[in-house]
Design goal:
- By secondary structure, the protein is mainly β.
- The protein has one domain: Porin.
- 8% of the residues lie in helices and 68% in strands.
- Strands 1-2-3-4-5-6-7-8-9-10 form a 10-stranded antiparallel beta barrel.
- A hairpin with a 4-residue loop joins β1 and β2.
- It is globular and about 50 Å long.
- The N and C termini lie far apart (43 Å).
């Protein structure tokens, strides 16, 4: 089970990046729900697919700081990886107005995540926690339409996870799609991870 966990561990930043709350309408408080589809390819050993969901909330006040809390759960072959994360973001620059279709935002993120891998056939679990750091960039490309780019990784063993997404604002909500990927080599084995997310967020 621990071998499976090490394969799932790389999904932690992928899931966070893929379900992050970029590409959203202007609002002080935002809630979101996402469908997550992830794939892990391990050398010539084949591919593991893990699907699930994510939910979260973000608070943004009059300062350059914002905080967010998220939960996700993905499952495959009788194993479920659940994670809880909280992030603090600081705007390095921000003149973004998604409604008008102008401006951009660059923010630095630092977060903390805990994860649990559980087997449905036994009571065995593996738990871990991580600090995660990254950058997110969002650009308005037309009224109510924006695109986002991001990079993040686990601080003590930084392997970059890259993400790209697009969002379209409808009233107080936003429909978005995002793709994230990461790649590393352990010994002679190449591990490739991808994550795709479709979600909806509501701001108020």
């Amino acid at each position: 089970m621990k071998e499976k966990y090490h394969m799932f561990k790389i999904l932690v930043p992928v899931t966070i990046v893929a379900s992050s709350m970029a590409c959203m309408a202007n609002a002080e408080t935002k809630i979101h729900a996402n469908y997550l589809s992830n794939n892990i390819k391990v050398g010539s050993l084949g591919k593991i697919s893990a699907d699930g969901y994510g939910v979260g909330i973000e608070f943004r006040g009059d300062t350059k700081l914002s905080t967010s809390i998220g939960y996700s759960s993905i499952s495959e072959a009788g194993l479920t990886l659940s994670q809880f994360s909280t992030q603090l973001a600081y705007d390095l620059l921000n003149d973004l107005d998604v409604t008008a279709g102008t401006g951009r935002r660059l923010q630095a993120d630092i977060g903390y995540a805990t994860s649990e891998l559980k087997a449905s056939s036994t009571s065995a679990t593996v738990n871990d926690d991580y600090f995660i750091a990254g950058l997110e960039y969002e650009l308005a490309i037309a009224p109510n339409l924006s695109m986002g780019l991001g990079v993040a990784g686990i601080v003590d063993d930084f392997v970059p996870t890259y993400g790209a997404g697009i969002g379209y604002a409808v009233g107080n909500g936003t429909v978005s799609a995002k793709y994230a990927f990461s790649e590393e080599t352990i010994g002679t084995t190449k591990i490739e991870v991808t994550g795709f997310t479709i979600g909806y967020s509501y701001g108020f």
